Amino acid sequence: MTLRWLAIQVWRYRVTGLMVILSVTFLLVIVGTHLLQHSSSFNFHQGRIKIPMKASDPKQRHNILTHDHTKESNTLKDRTDSTLHKIKRRNPPVVFLKTHKTGSSTVQNLLFRVGEKEGATFAFPAHTYQFSYPHKFKVDFVDELPEGSSHFDILCSHMRLDVGQLKQMMPPDTVYVTILREPVQMFESVFSYYTFAVPAFTSAKKAAGHRSALSVFLESPESFWDPNERGNGLGKNPMSFDLGLDNQQWNWSRPANLTLLEETFQLVMIAEHFDESLVLLGDLLKLDLEELASVSHNTRSAYSLSPLDNITKARIRDWNQLDVWLYDFFLRVFWQRAERYGLGRLNRDVALLRASTERIRQKCVARKQVPPAELDDLIRPWQTDSVTITGYHIQKNLTKQEQGFCMRLVLPELQYHAHLYFQQYGRAVGPLPTVTHK
């Protein structure tokens, strides 16, 4: 009787029992998924590079960076081999033409961070930090492809553009990006930064006495600027020069090389619309908000800045007509690109980016515009003879993982380049070869 009664009860409540079993199974699946996600997140953060804030001397600090990067390289390899990372990189290859005094160092830092995290193979100059500038780019200027890499993933060091040479070296699906800046402010920055590097500017400085060297130069620029003198490339239309255009052969028609530029670059960023440019860059390269966070790099101190009067602005525009024309042209192209993205969507994404970046800056940066004398060698930007370049202090109350991220956020160009080069090749950046005269 008991067994029969039990069978009747099971049959009567069969639907309820089935629902209970399904509910328990569903809860177990949710709990298991949560644990897996938590484990994955933990492993990712544990894999970040750790950089101690201080060391006893510059050489030791460099050794700390390279030593920790060896460990990070192994961690990246482990993550690549895991089921969570089936491919080496999720981002397409990218060439970033780093133009002078346009905010390009900030973009380069972003690409350095992304490439380091993703285990990218960088196309580095074979010597020093630039691709034999001011010569036009050649494949021969690039260091060897590292063992185990089938192609280069990122090129973002200074060069003078040659599209044909680049496309010989980079994969067919490479994304090409550059950045332009309003020509008046850009030229003033170039003049100030390279006063003692560009011969035309140096001559004007010597002739100026106690007057403004920029004003003296602009009164009669042809008397100082010799287009055939090496080093004068940035003395006139510097952005056009970086893009491979020729000041002397420009005839103000729409030349084939300008058409080539428009067809080559999927994105020409605009410094005056930097956040909008970052959103469009992130869309092209499949980057998230944290990867797009940035601080301004290679920034002059406030004491190195001088306001420009209307006469000086007009003279700069007149002297740099090709840059003005180029900037205005690509500014229109930029907004066409933005309209295709969707202006409403762009505004929303810019707001999200600014909020995310502000949180990261508050977390990382203790002080900005720090004079170079107050900066450790590891985070001191390279200084010119004519201006003061400031840097950052990062917060002290950070975990080692946060410290590694924040240090890279503020790390100057030369130090980051040298660090990544050592990680990739196991040797220091080489000097220019010595030329012997017989």
Describe the structure.
With 438 residues, this protein is α/β, with parallel strands linked by helices. It has one domain: Rossmann fold, CATH 3.40.50. Helix content is 51%, strand content 7%. It is built from 17 helices and seven strands. The protein has a four-stranded parallel sheet with strand order 2-1-3-4. A three-stranded antiparallel sheet has the order 5-7-6. Helix 4 links the parallel strand 1 and strand 2. Helix 11 crosses helix 15.
Brief summary of the model shown:
This is Galactose-3-O-sulfotransferase 4. It is a single-pass type II membrane protein. 51% of the residues lie in helices and 7% in strands.
Offer a few descriptive terms:
7% strand, Rossmann fold, 438 residues, 17 helices, alpha/beta
Global mean pLDDT: 83
Structural domain tally: 1
DSSP, total strands = 7
The description of the largest β-sheet is: 4 strands, parallel
Strand fraction: 5-15%
The low-confidence parts are 18-87
C-alpha Rg (nearest Å)? 27 Å
Helix segment tally: 17
Indicate the structural class.
Answer: alpha/beta
Order of helices and strands: HHHEHEHEHHHHHEHHEHHHEEHH
Give the end-to-end Cα distance, rounded to a whole number of Å.
115 Å
Q: If you consult CATH, what is the topology?
A: Rossmann fold
Shape: globular
Helix content: 40-55%
- Which CATH class is shown? Alpha Beta
Strand order of the largest sheet: 2-1-3-4
CATH architecture type: 3-Layer(aba) Sandwich
